[in-house]
Fold T-cell receptor alpha chain constant domain-containing protein.
Amino acid sequence: PYFLGLRSPKSSNISVCLFTDFDSETNEEQAPEPTMTRLKSTVLDMWSMNSKSNGALAWSASTDFKCNETFHEEFYSSSDFSCNATLIEKNFETDMNLNFHNLFMIGLRVILLKVAGFNLLMTLQLWSR
């Protein structure tokens, strides 16, 4: 399972915890404290990877909110890595090889349709004589 703790940029407190990729038999009980909101486990369906994953989400505004206490599991901090949407957007690039293959396949389909249409027209012209 993976634990992700998301922090508010204005404070150092963890405000959101995401618990993913756990077994479907894992039973996550309700929130242990009243100041915390926690969703029951859900199934995330990733069409692009043709896979499903279990996930649970919890968030709180309290100062002593910790992911490992929330889900009763070992939590590995990722404070060395920043999760900034603008940095991810700058580094995101499409696969040029995949784009080339897609364009190549579209070109082959267009040529195949033109050849089939030309053959059909020539066959009809020969039959009409």
About this structure: The chain has a mean pLDDT of 69. The longest helix spans residues 96-128. The chain has three helices and five strands.
